[in-house]
Input
Amino acid sequence: MTIGMLEVLLLDARGLQDTDFLGGMDPYVLIQYKNQERKSSVARGEGGSPVWNEKFTFRVEYPGGEGQYKLVLKIMDKDTFSADDFLGQASIYLEDLLALGVENGKSELHPCKYRVVRTDQTYCGEIRVGINFTPKVKEEKDEIQVGGWKESDY
Output
């Protein structure tokens, strides 16, 4: 099993449909990978074309764990006096990227656009994301220390 770091570059979104009747949308993104979640900053007043330009990191094990190697980007609208609105989500499947990273020592998906869809599977805009995966380099000699001793006569 290889452990590494997945770096997600959240750039921007376009064509998001405004759900607010008064004022503009204040979108943010919840980024989920397996049981890890990160939250972007809120793009105040940027409406349907927000720009974040933020990096997030996730700890990744490949191969290992149950479930799919999927990155989910949920786009939400921050509301002050009510629950935040779900605008849509995009899913990025990472199994091939992780396999290439383990094989080559690093892998990258250059920033590109992914479709944002609602729960009824209708298209509602696009989000631009770039992804890098870097496996942690293992040392040649892994020493196991028990109680602070490297070697023992017993």
User: Anything to note?
Assistant: The mean pLDDT is 87.
